[in-house]
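Box S2. Input/output pair 1.
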Amino acid sequence: MQIYLDHSATTPTRSEAVEAMLNSLTQAWGNPSSLHHWGETAATAVETARLQVADLINAPAESIIFTSGGTEANNLALMGALPQKPGHLIISGVEHAAISEPAGRLQEQGWQVTRLSVTPQGRVSPEDFKAALRPDTALASVIYGQSEVGTVQPIAELAAIARGHGVLFHTDAVQVAGRLPLDVEALGVDLLSLSSHKLYGPKGVGALYVRPGLSLQPLLAGGGQERGRRSGTEAVPNIVGFGVAAALASSELDSESPRLEQLRDRLFEHLAGVWSLQVTGDRQNRLPHHVSFLVDAEDSRGKPITGKALVRQLNLAGIAISSGSACHSGKLAPSPVLLAMGYPERLAQAGIRLTLGRDTTEADIDWTAGVLKQCVMGQRPL
């Protein structure tokens, strides 16, 4: 039995997206910047996808910049929207590395960076956010749905506070798109990042929403594609696949999100009595597909069980889970997110994440719960 429960790392590309990509490779293979028929065909395919992605977040099509993925979108949001003169930047303590590392580089260039503390559930306090704002604060970036622990932040409230102080606000919505409703007008954000392969599109493409009227300094110089905001010939097949996946995600959201919530809660209920598994993240304000725990136990040799060890055990049983963000899952260091949430270093290496998807069934949930219990129930408490 093979069960894939690592949908926050990546999702399988939908057959509809694959079909559209193949059609693009054979029928719309021209350069979108070319003025002839072949170029116009490719350009039309790109603009169709732009409309589809924009519709997913209730944005005008011209506000969408296609990028190589969520990481580039996050980097472009920070590096492109900030002024040349160093000032003050706010991020949360539970950001993805695609935000925290660029913020670190900006700090080396003279920017002052405030990393907001979070509750033990990983939530940013609006009061703390407001208190951190300064006259020279240029931008704030807070992740919408945390990939390791599933916590959903009060983005609309935070963005309203930022707007009231004349501060630009960005959110990394990579984990939210296709799982919860996204409306940039209702959220009031200035910038928002997306990634195709988190919502059943291909890898290698993402998007940055930029509020109309907001100027953005491009990271790449060259041919001036994407209205001069992101140079480089567009990856038309990937963009087309992204558009199709976004359209399908939008049309299915009302049914798929509650279905995932039910499966998520079913898994939590199955494992509620397992003393060695501590729930991480916020149970109420949580991504609908996300389950996460700390393994608070030691093995037969008296050594603490790490999340990676449990990932390997479940892999042998044909079940794919993660020990945290896919970008850090191969590293031995404690999770920066769990450390920021107040967990000691020992437990910050003991996190596991099970993330559900379109093909996940109740049978998958029940079987996984049984296997996971077998792996941890016989272990000794620390």
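Box S3. Input/output pair 2.
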Amino acid sequence: MNHTCILVGAPVDSGQSNPGCVMGPASYRVAGLAATLAELGCTVDDRGDVAPRPPAAANCTNAAVHHLPETIAWTKALAEAAQDAMAAGFPVFLGGDHSLSLGTVAGVANHAREQARPLFVLWLDAHSDFHTPMTTGSGNLHGTPMAYIAGLGDFEAFPPFPDPVPTDRICLFGIRSVDPDEHKALREHGIAPVDMRELDERGFIAPLSAFLDRVRSANGLLHVSLDVDFLDPSIAPAVGTTVPGGATFREAHLVMEMLHESGLVSSLDLVELNPFLDDRGRTARLMVDLTASLMGRKVFDRVNRSS
């Protein structure tokens, strides 16, 4: 694969309550992401870390919500950076907690609208992230980006999402933790997550292939958002929101290889890596290896590393 990969650091730590995600971009760099992509024939342009402007005052009537001004500032800065990166190549956004997708997907959506192409979103995550600022009980805004992307209300403090993604262009994949308010909102908006029960019964290939067929038929752009907690915590411990029963090493690589073979992916988030919770960098290295599979490396080509 011959891509120009644009690395955009997003050291966002405002969307959740476990400090450490701010170190995520540096951890990916230390784990050799740029060199790995270069080995695969990619041209790599590391643009460093985004730095938002000082936050303006913002309020939410839900008293649980915290760091709202900071998260809005990140959303604006990352939307601009994402739109610029989309025009230059294949962006890989290095997070940072999942609230970064409020901005990255907004920038990708602006680019898709300029290209007159429909945007599709594949959300690889244990959680649906379908809260709004008014329904979140924890106040953690990393649980809201999918609702923002889908055009739900209660985001008045944020910039309007440029082109909300219709629910038939959204695939929530690997889900295994959904709050009651999220479950209700998903039902009301006609979204049926591909949860781990379905994946256990049907396998990974059929539901993912069906979604990719829809992207292909529409000549769409495909944004993939990969949360560390999509993976089982036994292989990826470096996340503050571990949920047992996630994708195995082989299942995760299968997903990435299928995405590569589709030729449809146009941008990627790597989110929720908390190096403070890692075991000698094993999660960061696994996320780099999964990115390599997305870019064309087969598992049997993987370089063995000493533990």
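Caption for Box S3: The mean pLDDT is 95. The first strand starts at residue 4 and ends at 10.
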